[in-house]
Amino acid sequence: MIDSVDIVLNKQFSPELLADLVAGMPKRAKQAEVARILKSFNTEKQADLLGYLAAKESESRVEDVISFWLVNMVYCKASAAVIREVEKRSDVYYVDADMKYVPGLLPALVAEDATDASGYEITWGVQKINAPAVWALGYTGQGIVVGDIDTGCNYNHHDLRDHMWTDSHYPHHGWDFKDSDDDPMDNSGHGTHTAGTVASDGTTGTQCGVAPDAQIMSCRVRTVADSLAESQIWAAMEFVISPPLSPSNGGDLITMSLGWRNAWHPRRKLWWDGCNNVGAAGVMMIVAAGNERSTSPPYSCRTPGDVPPPWWNPQNVGTGALSNVISIGATDSDDHYASFSSRGPVEWGTVAGYNDYPYPPGLTRPDVSAPGVDVKSCKYNSNTGYTQMSGTSMATPHTAGTVALMLSKNPNLSPAVVDSILEMTAVDLGSSGKDMDYGAGRIDALAAVNYVTGSGRPDLGMESVTVIDPPPGGNNNGRVDPGETAKLEMTLHNYGDVTCYNTVGTLVSGDVRLTVSDPTGT
């Protein structure tokens, strides 16, 4: 018997070092460089294991070996005997089943609307968060790519067909990680619904998209409600950062309306590590908190919706490190929290490798809330129809659309800045301040975009470095070789909204083999 397994190796690249190595780089270059660094690291660390698996593959005991780079992990199908052998390897941290079959991954269908809407309308959730007022300011999500990791998307829906990510290498606007092909067409509805909440333009009658000019990068990772393969999620996250055939044409943010309940034993440390690496690439993660309000804290929120945020709100409880997940709860049309919306706090005190946020008090979750009850959006099996669903799955794309609006005003906002603005401008509900039901409150797109005034200062990042090493001090090969003297010509890019003049930089060497003779340049 052959089983699908994830093999996680002991050595993982330091997220802190990764963030330092790409600091100051332009967004797309940063994403490609994160991919390059992690691929290089994992290629070395996985070499022995991959050699072993290749030998077993020749014996028909292993199939479909896939190497990952976002986390140091290898997926394969293997016999029980091979799995037992792999578990004993000194370079392997653990081996776990890849596919989880569990109930309740997707929200129930609440109601179904007529195939064609009669007259133009804007859905209640889009209106509640003041998105139309943002459009009037000229910010509609233009130029922003939203990676939607879900069940795929009906990219032929008239509300969405003009708002899909385009790339000549990916003619169907994304990738199908379930069937390993280039067609992420939805066959169950959840993904089309979330995509519509991000970017529907109302062509067929109902304006249900928060950011109608954003582009949807569709990442299909499951086909039925009761299946969720961890390897497919990792592959999709890698794709959003840096698509293999177009490494510099990635997405700006991830919307992810899925997760694992604590009872399903998710590998939480690996999720924190992986989310850190996504954050190092400058890609923010908007993730559903979950629909398990009936489960008592600290295990009500799903993973990765329980992973720490990129920004520390002073009203958060607990003590620990930050990561890259903006966790989303759900509200109804009366601004009450949804009866199903998962609540905090969560704990990480029992997770080896972090041991943060011991409970009590744990960590405050969610970060913010958004409309998630009776949400109308695009229908997967009709190019003109709509349907209603409820869940934190529906609240999450409302928030992702709001982030797309913010980024269309200033595309260089970091995950931490985005999180801070969402929380500081949210409509406070429930207990005063950030709480375990609503987080900081229900999002307000207009207030958030108005808060995004640009940096108000120069924002310089390194664009390129050229080594100039002519004779007699050098050999003119464009590299700094032992014993030669060279000059460095650095090109900076100003991502801020204020012009800067007469910029002075100081070069410092952290390598004892390099001596800086003239450290200051303009």
TrEMBL record:
Q: Pfam families recorded for this chain?
A: Peptidase_S8
Gene3D superfamilies (alphabetical): Peptidase S8/S53 domain
Q: Does the keyword DNA repair apply?
A: no
All copies of the Peptidase S8/S53 domain together span 141-441
What are the catalytic residues?
D150 (charge relay system), H190 (charge relay system), S393 (charge relay system)
Keyword Thylakoid in annotation: no
Its recorded name reads Peptidase S8/S53 domain-containing protein
Question: Species name for this entry?
Answer: candidate division WOR-3 bacterium JGI_Cruoil_03_51_56
